[in-house]
Amino acid sequence: MEMEKKRLLIVTQEMEPYTEGTEVSALAAQLPKFLQDNGYELRILMPRYGVVNERRHRLHEVVRLSGMNIIVDDDDYPLIIKVASLPGSRLQVYFLDNEDFFKRKFVFDDADGQAFEDNPDRAAFFCKGAIETVKKFGWAPDFILCHGWLTGLIPFYLKTAYKTEPLFANSTVVYNVYPGEHERLGGDRFFEKAAINNLSKEDLLAYRDGDGFSINKGACAYADAIVIGSESVDTGVDYLSVAQDKPVLPWKSFDEFQSANLDFFRQLSEAEVSQ
What we know:
It contains 8 helices and 12 strands. By secondary structure, the protein is an alpha/beta fold. It has a single domain (6-274), classed as Glycogen Phosphorylase B (Rossmann fold), CATH 3.40.50.2000.
């Protein structure tokens, strides 16, 4: 009897060939086809930034998934879902689109290299929108793999606002840690925008880091397992101290990355079975 395929949801802030030139976009692109070839059923979600060329990548709207409104700080924002085929694979990538948050010529910074003031709003919209999209799929993932700071509220939301959602009852949330200034930018605006579904700023205390905040720290606190996605991550920093009792995959070189992740997911599956 053939074993049922494990379902793996990849939520990433960037991915080649749609966005290029970053560590996150390169590594996120390495896993999908490899994991699919090794028996995993995958779905991939990412933002539809203005830099994504719809014509070249043949994006088209998925009408049955579009039409939701996502609330951020009491304002409603329409969520449009588009889809494209990942080149060289049998996989589809679902793009979360909203004109207010993503229709701009740059990804996280403006033309002067300054971080967009509404990045916290964009993170809250994307993370909540990703969860609501999976609910609309009606597809229960065994693993939810989050790549990058923009996805850093997903572990928190799944363990709080969505903790009674049956679709995610058996999901293992894995957070990939990457370095970068954006995960510490936003200040009080982050706490105001991230509090959804009757959550309060106090519920976000895990994201506090001294006088500031760290999306990586909070995400590591709520994730079930952690992957060090970059050699540049300082594994001695405070935000990783919350992961002491959790499975952690140390940084692996590009050549080892795929097989190491596959082994890590298999170990997590075995740990679930033994519990």
